[in-house]
Write a structure and sequence with these properties.
The chain is 48% helix and 21% strand. It is of the alpha/beta class and 136 residues long. Strands 1, 2, 3, 4, 5 and 6 form a 6-stranded mixed β-sheet that branches. The protein is globular and about 35 Å long.
Amino acid sequence: MEQQAGRMTVLVVEDFDDTRRMMRQFLESGGYSVVEASDGREAVETARRARPALVLMDLNLPVLDGFTATLRIREDEQMRHTPVVAVTAYDTPESRAAARAVGCDDYLAKPLDFDKLMTLLERILAKSRAQTDEAA
């Protein structure tokens, strides 16, 4: 897990600039370091390079959709257990099942409730840290 100056790094994958900027500002105000990607291919490349502690993955993306991008991130041995949270406007049981099937750990519907996002991040990152500590 990458950390910058003691801060956990979160990869925000979102094709809408305003939404991505809003997520960045919120996460940085919460003490997280943020890297960004605006399409699925860029998400895979950025994840491999930055090794974030967590990925917030929009599912409806240009170039490479979020489902495929998540699968490719999961193919990387070092990223296999990095938490990925699907973030999408398509909040249907089918979409949730498809996100789980490709390896998403959780699911957030848009428009984002930032209190829910922060609670989810804290829960997932605490669980991930505990698993890392157990493996060490």
